[in-house]
């Protein structure tokens, strides 16, 4: 066991600014602060090869200026690692920029941020040593059980931030940056801004939803459905072999009107504008924060090269390369995975068809609620598939990134982000796309239905329309994602930490501190990435298909209020300290947000045009209804719409009408579509309606995208105050250079 008793180091304050240069004027010795801790399972000491690699790694660290101290308990051996301060002096010289003030001898800092110190040490430890090993390699091979930086000075974050009672308080972004680094601070700054901007969207979405209540009883369409006792609907599946009165769907018709009304179109356009304004205002907020942190001109490539030179004086930067062969292989494999995701949607189709037949035979008490049970159970199955495919998608995305051989860690993270998000997008939204645009449109019509494997009839939409199915699917998946997933996200590390903390720590203060950090939950390279991905999927649910679920922003708002504190508690109280990362923006996630905004415009336009009843209602009002020649005060403009929107099918044309209960008393039944009763071909109304749907889709998308472009132009990405501050600093540097004696002409 080694001791370092001859070194004197000042103990930093809570902010953890550590001395850049050794200070030898102290008369009393203070407790030493360690940058990193390695943990060794003593059982591995029985393997001579493991012990040899461990000693060789520690010796190489000593040669690079590191010092270490070993301590042990009954099961583990701990090594505290501390880097030579000259390493950080070299980092300062290599990364010196002109962003803050002109550099001179007096501007040289006397301390280095703990976040920078940990980041530099972590980079060196995970760079290849002379023997070719990195810390990650040694942990993977079992030479070390773990390696992590220590929590120190987090008490103020526990009191101000990482607790549930602080849910409605402002986040201390500067303190988060001082402890976890810029990347984590930017994540919480973005999440806080996103939550703040959700307030108007949630309020307007709730108003749109509640506005349906004002017409809950007054809607002419609902009134006609509730009074349609003499209209019989055709059997919709093999599980329901009887005619059903249209009036039996009265309650569902009223519920559908809550989210399928005229306000839906305006809300969809508003959300397109909201998404653009949110992004533009975030860019402005980010610019202010980055300028305050003196990172406005920070260069990531320069940072990577500087760290490489600190780790190895002979370091050479990796050059940019591109392989068309690798790109082609990755593209083909990605398309194969996307096809698999789409195939999972077809699995759900098969499940819903088989579940309908099973529920009808095994659960006869469900009666007319078989369709509802199938929709709900299908959503639950989809949620389970999402959980399974998330693990598979992450593995595939990592393998694709390794095959692509990215140049730097940041480039690897960016490529991984694109691949993983693409796969996750199809995993989450494939079933919603099927319900919104395919369900009920490929199953034929009564008397000539499309069957799966020639046996089971394909599922149809609910009698009240496909918007009800889409609403239920989104409500269940988003509800489970925001409740069950958050509970698991918190309870799993909390219970694991409690179990690991049952054994009391050592009486030695230093060893006890190391043990408490070791017993926290481990963190990984992409721990923060997982939080970003969770929020991006939620953002997709909040904007894409919001026309079918106007309560999505409200659910997201409540979820984010919990998510901020949940993530804070995990990072500060339940997990080992994240290795700080330097950043001046949220990286590729900004492009992901912009792509989601464009997809939201397209998806919502298609939902309004093809899934909702908005277009058929408008066409009927102005072309076929009683108001086509002008409004009439004594007649509602939608009078007769229900009868107009239902096609007629003569029961004698069923292939085997005797199998349908009550067929002898019903001569004709109705179904939702615009077919001719004589030849079962599309009627003139269907072709006219299709043309109007396409025209509306084109008009809606162009108007919404133009609004987005105008909003993006109207709101500058960078505030003028930030531009002026940068301009002043540039002028100040030029002025000082021009006045410098060295710059005067001889």
Automatic annotation (TrEMBL):
It comes from the Eukaryota. InterPro entries: Anoct_dimer (IPR032394), Anoctamin (IPR007632), Anoctamin_TM (IPR049452). One of its GO terms (molecular function) is protein dimerization activity. The chain crosses the membrane at residues 184-210, 264-282, 329-351, 371-390, 420-442, 536-566, 586-610. GO terms for cellular component: plasma membrane. Residues 108-173 form the Anoctamin dimerisation domain. The keyword Ligase does not apply. It is found in: Cell membrane; Membrane. It is a multi-pass membrane protein. Keywords: Cell membrane, Glycoprotein, Membrane, Transmembrane, Transmembrane helix. Its main location: membrane. Residues 176-728 form the Anoctamin transmembrane domain. Belongs to the anoctamin family. This is Anoctamin.
């Amino acid at each position: 066991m080694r001791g370092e008793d001859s070194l004197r180091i000042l103990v930093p304050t809570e902010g953890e600014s550590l001395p850049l240069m050794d200070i030898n004027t102290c008369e009393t010795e203070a407790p030493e602060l360690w940058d990193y801790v390695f943990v060794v399972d003593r059982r591995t000491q029985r393997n001579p090869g493991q012990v040899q690699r461990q000693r060789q790694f520690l010796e190489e660290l000593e040669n690079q200026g590191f010092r270490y101290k070993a301590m042990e308990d009954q099961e583990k051996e701990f090594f505290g690692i501390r880097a030579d301060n000259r390493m950080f002096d070299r980092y300062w010289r290599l990364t010196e920029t002109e962003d803050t003030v002109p550099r001179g001898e007096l501007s040289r800092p006397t301390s280095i941020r703990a976040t920078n110190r940990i980041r530099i040490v972590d980079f060196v430890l995970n760079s290849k040593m002379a023997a070719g090993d990195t810390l990650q390699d040694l942990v993977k091979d079992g030479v070390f059980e773990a390696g992590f930086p220590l929590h120190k000075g987090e008490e103020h974050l526990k009191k101000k931030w990482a607790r549930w009672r602080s849910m409605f308080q402002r986040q201390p972004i500067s303190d988060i940056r001082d402890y976890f680094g810029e990347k984590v601070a930017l994540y919480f700054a973005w999440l806080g801004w996103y939550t703040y901007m959700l307030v108007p969207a949630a309020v307007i979405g709730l108003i749109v939803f509640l506005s349906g209540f004002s017409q809950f009883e007054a809607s002419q369409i609902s009134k006609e459905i509730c009074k349609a006792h003499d209209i019989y609907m055709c059997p919709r599946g093999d599980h329901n072999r009887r005619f059903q009165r249209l009036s039996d769907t009265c309650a569902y018709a009223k519920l559908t009107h809550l989210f399928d009304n005229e306000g839906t179109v305006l809300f969809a356009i508003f959300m397109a504008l909201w998404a653009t304004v949110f992004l533009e205002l975030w860019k402005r907020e980010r610019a202010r924060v980055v300028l305050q942190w003196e990172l406005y001109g920070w260069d990531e490539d320069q940072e990577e090269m500087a760290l490489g030179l600190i780790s190895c004086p002979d370091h050479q930067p990796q050059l940019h390369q591109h392989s068309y062969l690798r790109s082609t292989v990755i593209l083909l494999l990605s398309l194969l995975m996307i096809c698999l995701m789409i195939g999972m949607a077809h699995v759900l189709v098969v499940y819903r068809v088989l579940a309908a037949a099973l529920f009808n035979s095994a659960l006869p008490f469900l009666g007319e609620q078989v369709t509802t049970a199938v929709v709900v159970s299908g959503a639950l199955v989809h949620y389970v598939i999402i959980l399974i495919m998330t693990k598979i998608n992450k593995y595939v995305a990592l393998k694709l990134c390794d095959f692509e051989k990215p140049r730097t860690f940041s480039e690897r993270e960016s490529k991984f982000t694109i691949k993983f998000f693409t796969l996750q997008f199809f995993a989450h939204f494939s079933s919603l796309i099927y319900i919104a645009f395919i369900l009920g449109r490929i199953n034929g019509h009564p008397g000539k239905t499309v069957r799966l494997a020639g046996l089971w009839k394909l599922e149809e939409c609910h009698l009240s329309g496909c918007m009800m199915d889409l609403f239920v699917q989104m409500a269940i998946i988003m509800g489970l994602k925001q409740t069950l997933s958050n509970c698991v996200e918190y309870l799993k590390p909390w219970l694991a930490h409690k179990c690991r903390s049952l054994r009391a720590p050592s009486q030695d203060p230093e060893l006890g501190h190391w043990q408490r950090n070791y017993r926290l939950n481990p963190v990984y390279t992409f721990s923060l990435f997982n939080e970003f991905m969770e929020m991006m999927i939620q953002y997709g649910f909040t904007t894409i298909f919001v026309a079918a679920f106007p309560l999505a922003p409200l659910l997201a708002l409540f979820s984010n209020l919990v998510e901020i504190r949940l993530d804070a508690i995990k990072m500060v109280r339940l997990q080992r300290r994240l290795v700080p990362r330097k950043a001046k923006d949220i990286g590729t996630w900004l492009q992901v947000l912009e792509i989601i905004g464009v997809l939201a415009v397209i998806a919502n336009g298609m939902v309004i045009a093809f899934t909702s009843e908005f277009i058929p209602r408008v066409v009927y009002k102005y072309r076929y209804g009683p108001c086509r020649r002008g409004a009439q005060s004594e007649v509602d403009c939608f009078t007769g719409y229900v009868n107009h929107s239902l096609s007629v099918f003569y029961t004698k044309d069923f292939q085997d009408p005797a199998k349908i209960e009550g067929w002898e008393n019903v001569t004709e039944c109705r179904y939702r579509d615009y077919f001719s009763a004589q030849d079962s071909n599309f009627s003139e109304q269907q072709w006219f309606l299709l043309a109007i749907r396409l025209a509306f889709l084109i008009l809606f998308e162009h108007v919404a995208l133009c609004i987005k472009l105008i909003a993006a132009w109207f709101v500058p990405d960078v505030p003028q105050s930030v531009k002026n501050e940068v301009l002043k600093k540039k002028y100040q540097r030029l002025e000082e250079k021009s006045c410098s004696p060295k710059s005067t002409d001889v």
